[in-house]
């Protein structure tokens, strides 16, 4: 049986938001990496830092924060949509919170929540924020590496949403 139109639209929105969020957070992780790299090079030999052609540290820090400001809400809404589809697509069987992709994504989002809180309310910036960005991104990579593994993640959620009998049918 073909998935309903609402399920197809919901899946499209879920995947679209998740991809926008992941793209922004991937960019933030790359910027954080270059921030930390530039600091390390500047500590070893400040003259060598000028040859890298990277933006100043303040700009890298600001880019990182702005990318997280875009990626965090997009991924959070995408994850919420995915959780809803898994929860309702399973017909009440089991808990969608046990899905390894959801666990890793929620843990990564918790790190990004902490990052936004410490940056906004405690005034943290620079190295601490860069390390938190990389930690959150690593958790997201672990989460999305579990997609389709052992019947979990995308294979489980998509099959559960599109099939009336649950996840044992393939797409």
SSE string, helices as H and strands as E: HHHHHH
What is the end-to-end distance?
11 Å
Mean pLDDT: 79
- Kindly state the number of beta strands: 0
SS element count, helices: 6
Identify the notable features of this structure and list them briefly.
171 residues; 6 helices; mainly alpha; disordered C terminus
Q: How would you portray this structure in words?
A:
By secondary structure, this protein is an all-alpha fold. 75% of the residues lie in helices and 0% in strands. The C terminus is likely disordered.
Fold topology:
Blueprint: H1 5-44, H2 46-49, H3 57-89, H4 100-121, H5 127-145, H6 153-162
Helix pairs in contact: 1-3, 1-5, 3-4, 3-6, 4-5
What's the short version?
The chain is mainly alpha-helical. The chain contains 6 helices and no strands. 75% of the residues lie in helices and 0% in strands.
């Amino acid at each position: 049986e073909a998935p309903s139109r609402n399920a197809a639209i919901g899946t499209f929105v879920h995947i679209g938001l998740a991809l926008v969020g992941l793209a922004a957070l991937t960019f933030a992780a790359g910027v954080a990496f270059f921030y930390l790299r530039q600091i390390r090079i500047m500590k070893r030999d400040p003259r060598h830092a000028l040859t890298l052609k990277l933006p100043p540290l303040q700009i890298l820090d600001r880019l990182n924060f702005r990318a997280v400001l875009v990626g965090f809400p997009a991924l959070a809404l995408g994850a919420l949509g995915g959780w809803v589809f898994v929860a309702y697509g399973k017909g009440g069987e089991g808990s969608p919170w046990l899905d390894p992709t959801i666990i890793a994504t929620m843990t990564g989002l918790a790190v990004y929540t902490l990052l936004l809180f410490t940056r906004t309310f405690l005034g943290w910036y620079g190295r601490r924020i860069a390390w938190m960005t990389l930690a959150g991104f690593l958790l997201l990579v672990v989460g999305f590496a579990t997609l389709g593994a052992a019947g979990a993640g995308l294979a489980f959620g998509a099959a559960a949403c599109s099939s009336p009998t649950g996840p044992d049918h393939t797409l």
